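Deliverable D4.2, example record:
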Amino acid sequence: MNSNDQAAQSAQSQLNIELNEDVAEGLYSNLVMIAHSPEEFILDFIRVMPGVPKARVKSRIIVTPQHAKRLLNALAENIERYERSHGEIVERTPPGQPIQFGGPSGEA
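Output generated by the structure prediction step:
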């Protein structure tokens, strides 16, 4: 296959990704719960608020085990790039520990 054939094949296989305004705004999550079965990984992205004993799942993403592994590798690569540019990311809460918020508890 010559370079012109490769370029034509690459152009045909490019994926056009659309990002609408609602999705582009994003959702904030400070906790993720992960479950899996033999066929899929389920990632529940949650927002925990200070002084609120109940948290709501903001988004659930379901992926294949193969995609979960690609996601793991992509995150590791991006964290490495981030730390080369901005310094080491310091974890304030050890893994497995509950999130503790400082300051006074909220009242409504």
